[in-house]
Amino acid sequence: MVSTRHHPREFPPAVLGASPTKSPAKSSRTSTSSPTPSSPATPSKSLTKRALTNSIAASPSSPPAAVWAHTASNVTVAWILVSLPVVVWDALYCLLRPHTMAGGALQWPLWKPYELYASIDYVYGWPAWEARDGFTAAQAWLNMVEVIGYGLYITILYDHGASAAGGRGLQFGHGVEGWFAGGRRVQGRQASRAVVIAFVASVMTASKTVLYFLNEACSGFKNVRHNEWVVLVPLYIATNGIWLVMSSYMTYVFGAEIIEGLDAASGVNSKKDQ
């Protein structure tokens, strides 16, 4: 008796048009295989890419450069406004001698107060004039240069500047309502020009005042040694010393501001040790 072979699973159905020489397994694998489609980009990646593209297109190519500004304190402005006419008065006295001296045609009334000072400091008196000492007139010409510099500085502040709540340097009080606590602020190229002009003028004033004292000291105080200390201190040392103090203060303030501007231009923080 012949037994029929047992198959664990049924044969696959015949495929129409298939070659009889090919095995059913190969035919099945061929018929079920399909090309793998390219996977589309996920929605989250697409949105991220679009947002990044929009942000790059909307952003400027380079950030705008910060505008450098200078703010002069009202203490500095007040000193310049008060000292300018005094310097002009002093320079004209020296340049118009002997007509502005005692007995001169121009002495009364404008230069009458110089009669007292000329008796204390012979640089301004008849001894220097009769000795043909050129130091008095030379420092007067430098005074006129300083007047031009300070005049340009004040002009820039008021033509191109605006009131500010505070300025660099000494401050008294608070806010714009307290005049000595405020200042004048100017920006851009006018600010840089103003600071450089004021710095040069203040250096000239400070150095000229130091030279004035050194000239006297190196000559054995020949022009002031005839005075008593009670006269010399208030009418010679104090009156000339105030110019040295204020010009040195302005030299420091303007110089520090110039250094900060140069540090900012070079990308260096001046408040940190580099």
Automatic annotation (TrEMBL):
Protein name per the record: Emopamil-binding protein
Parts of the chain that traverse the membrane: 194-214, 229-246
UniProt keyword Membrane present: yes
Low complexity bias spans: 18-46
Lineage of producing organism: Eukaryota, Fungi, Dikarya, Ascomycota, Pezizomycotina
Residue segments, region Disordered: 1-47
First and last residue of the signal peptide: none
PANTHER family, A to Z: EXPERA DOMAIN-CONTAINING PROTEIN, PROTEIN CBG05606
Keyword Cell inner membrane included in the entry's annotation: no
Keywords, ordered alphabetically: Membrane, Transmembrane, Transmembrane helix
